[in-house]
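User: Here's a chain of 201 residues. Predict its fold as C-alpha cells.
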Amino acid sequence: EALLRRSGVPARQARAINCFAHGHPLALLLAASAHAERPGLALEHAALPTVVDALARLYLDGLDPDTRRALDAASVTRRTTLSLLAAQLPDEPAHEAFARLRALPFAELGRDGLVIQDTVREAVAALLRAGDPAAHRRLKLAAWHQLRSEMRDAHPDEMWRYTADALYLIENPGVREIYFPTAAPTHVHEPARPGDWPGIE
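Assistant: Prediction complete.
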C-alpha cells in the first residue's frame, strides 16, 4: 500500500488494489500505472485489464503447450492435486502435469496441494474464461465431479479443504466475495454466542 501511495494512489484505492494484486510487486506497479492513466474509472475497469494482460504476457508467453494446459486447469481451482489434474486432463499423465506446474516459479507446494500464486491464477483464469469459455467450464465441471467423489470418503478433518475447494468453484459474485474477497473485507467472522442460536436456527 505504501508503494501505491507513493505512486499517487489514494489510500482507500490502494487498499482495494492491493486486495486484488495480493501484494505482487509487478501487479501493484501495473495497477498504479493504469490508475494514473485513467483515475476517473472504477478500479476494476482501469487497472485489472492492464494487470491481467501484462501478467499474461510475462508468465504465459514461452510456456510449452502441455504446461499451459496444466496451468489453465490449475487456474480454476483453489489448489491442485494429482487427482484433480487427472480428472481435468484425462489424456495426460497427472504426475507429469503436476511436476511441470511445480517447476513454475509462481507455484508452491502446500499442505493440501499445489497452489498457484493468486495474481497469476486469477490472470490465467480470466484469460481462459474470456478466450475459451467452453474449456473454462469443462475444467471447472471436471474439478467439481472429482471433488464430490472425494468428499464421500474424506475424513471429517479434511472436509474444510473440500468445502473451500467447492466454494472456490462458485462464481456467483456475492458468494465468491464473502469467501474469497477481492476488496477490503466487509464481513467479520466470529464465534457464535449462546444467544445467537435462535437466529442461526
